[in-house]
Amino acid sequence: MLNLAHIGKIFNEGTPDEKVALDQVDLKLEKGDFVTVIGSNGAGKSTLMNVISGVLSPDAGSVEIDGKEVTGLPEYKRSRFIGRVFQDPMAGTAPSMTIEENLAMAYSRNQKRGLKKGVDKKRRNFFRESLSTLHLGLENRMNAKVGLLSGGERQALSLLMATFTEPEILLLDEHTAALDPSRAQLITELTKEIVQKHQLTTLMVTHNMKQALDLGNRLIMMDKGEIILAVEEEEKNKLTIEKLLKEFQRIKGEQMANDRAMLSI
């Protein structure tokens, strides 16, 4: 479903501030894979997500989604088959529009535009049923402005909007990091339910090692623009946070940097 081949990305090339963000990265996701991505700050995780979504163009390598070459395809065209939820709850929704209007925009993402009504009775019922699966009562507040929702409610809505058209690829970019622990747990559980229900091919960046181990069937660890560890399902089920940290130290010959990856244990 997703194939990254020899992806390279350098920022400020040829200057004193040159930084290799991605160094010959190869990654393949089969249909239904749920891969969690961990690594220290500056490891290249967000750059990887931006290359997949089309926000950034790679300097080298190719991106294929469902067998189609999309390396040169701009972000707005890839959005038809990529769903993405960001760390910032404000990023995935339009705050001045209602819940229903936000859902209508997301629903039409992969459809041809026309002059018919944006929301009819059948679609409104579909939105209401979809919202009810979040167990937040949002189905009774469809005319409320999204800007009035809490961070957790907006993130739940963003997750629903990114997934209810069942995209080929779902990108989760630290989508629980800005939430308090109880809301983060809620979004984590919703993520698990939605991905399993639709068998979505998912790539999730997280600083939370426990979350990385609890979710998904595969795990990769990045450092300095490279994938330094790839763990398949059987081995992942036996992993612990302590084993992960020891594996990083074995590979790199040093302890993982004392950033949020360590603090999120």
From TrEMBL:
It is found in: Cell membrane. Its main location: membrane. Signal peptide: none annotated. It is a peripheral membrane protein. Keywords: ATP-binding, Cell membrane, Membrane, Nucleotide-binding, Transport. The keyword Zinc does not apply. Gene3D superfamilies: P-loop containing nucleotide triphosphate hydrolases. The keyword Membrane applies. InterPro entries: AAA+_ATPase (IPR003593), ABC_transporter-like_ATP-bd (IPR003439), ABC_transporter-like_CS (IPR017871), ABC_transporter_ATP-bind (IPR050166), P-loop_NTPase (IPR027417). One of its GO terms (cellular component) is plasma membrane. It holds the Pfam family ABC_tran. Residues 2-249 form the ABC transporter domain. GO terms for molecular function: ATP binding; ATP hydrolysis activity. This is ABC transporter ATP-binding protein.
